Amino acid sequence: MKAKKHDYEAGLAVISTEKIQDPGLEPHRVRMTDKSVKHEQSANRQVAALFLLSAFGSVFSIYAYFAFPITEDLATVRANNLWLGLGITLGLLGIGIGAVHWAKTLMPDAEVTEERKQTRGSEEVRARAIEIIKLADQESGFTRRKLIRRSMYGALALFPLPAIFFFGDLGPNPGDSLRHTMWKKGTRLAKDPDGTPIKASDVTLGSIFHVIPAGLAELHDDRLNEKAKAAVILVRVNPAELIETEERKSWSYDGIVAYSKICTHVGCPVALYEQQTHHLLCPCHQSTFDLVDGCKVIFGPAARPLPQLPIAVDAEGYLIAQSDFDQPVGPSFWER
Residue limits of the Rieske domain (predicted)? Predict the structure, then answer.
């Protein structure tokens, strides 16, 4: 639609009823696979090869799962991630690129325009639509291109198999295992990772310590699992700033408080402390906890406060636990 020049000069916006001409479709470009049987057969083999590459990637990821096991050595974690990721990548890319290459080189690419309708079509129109879908299936060559069809079936059948092994490695349902950690009455608080016990006098106002139970370093088989549950954040604030319930007034010592380091959203480590506001921040999804008010959630997706570890001081001045956490550590959904 357009307006005349003198209408603009007069400061008026005039809408014309003149229709814009339909530009029509661009000239159809014939593909090489439409003109040459040789190119068509080559594209057919290429698509099948991509599907087979996907199948190989899926099988290789299962092999890598067993060939590169994860141990306490960090290098094994990198190797496991590298080769597993490579296999899964091949599995995904093979299927994706193969499907796109099939559509672009072998399936019909004639340009079609259709009028849009806002109402439900008649039964005749709907029946015709089903016929068109069936015709498109025939034209795509899915039925007659056996090499592509069989290779695609193989890729799709093998692709989900790695997930069976990966999900199985997540371990059994935790049950009530998250209700119990290494902390018990008299266990000393120690620095992470060297295991040096911490005295109350070592914790200055505004300082923060990443804490593990004393004796954790001596464990072997379950050391990482226990650390994942028992890790603690230790901070000292002005005792006058603490907002404590009657039940929890004895859980801190001269302004020193200890809370689980495991975020109650999805279990990331809460490791960032803002000294001026006394906020603890989880870097994964920005859940924020108020350290001086029972570590209640003040922002983010976490559903409950961080569990508090009751602490005291022994005869030698070392910080010790009074008991285990009062509630399960980690994500809220484990207890539901």
Answer: 229-320
Q: Residue 15's pLDDT is what?
A: 55
Residue with tokens 């692709």: 159
Contacting residues for 84 by C-beta, under 8 A, at least 6 apart = 61, 64, 65, 68, 162
CB atoms within 10 A of CB 276: 6
Q: How many CA atoms lie within 13 A of 105 on its CB side?
A: 22
Length reported for the chain: 336
Q: Which domains does the chain have, with CATH numbers?
A: 5-168 (no CATH), 177-335 (2.102.10.10)
How confident is the model over 3-52, as pLDDT tens digits? 455 554 555 555 556 677 777 778 888 889 888 999 999 999 999 999 99
pTM metric for this prediction: 0.54
260, 267, 261: which is closest to 284 by C-alpha? 267
Q: What is the residue type of 32?
A: M
**List of E strands, 67-166:** none
